[in-house]
Design a protein that fits this description.
single chain; 35% helix; globular
């Protein structure tokens, strides 16, 4: 789990949705807003239509947060959203896809 200071609040969450670059992986979409921010922040969205049980949604969110490695030098905010293609896929595949997308598109 990443620290609370590295998670998005509501105001920044809406800002990312309004003006961000979108990158698509196999199972996730990544929205990143590059800018002049104090620290890097992330949020994970797992829709109820993809994972119906709340226990599994929360487990997957915690797993994705745990797999995110935030570089303290980079200043960007982002949202990771699960796609419908992730409905019948193992959690490990989703986490692997998340790490690949972040390595490819997140600033270093």
């Amino acid at each position: 789990m990443i620290p609370k200071k590295n998670r998005l609040d509501k105001a920044l969450f809406l800002e990312v949705f309004k003006k961000s670059k979108i990158f698509h992986g196999t199972y996730i979409s990544l929205r990143i807003n590059y800018g002049d921010y104090q620290i890097s922040r992330f949020s994970v969205v797992v829709p109820k239509s993809v994972i119906p049980l709340a226990v599994n949604r929360n487990y997957l969110k915690r797993s994705i947060y745990g797999s995110i490695k935030i570089n303290p030098v980079s200043n960007y905010i982002g949202i990771i959203t699960l796609k419908k293609e992730a409905k019948n896929v193992s959690f490990e595949d989703i986490i692997k896809d998340t790490q690949e997308i972040l390595q490819k598109y997140a600033p270093k």
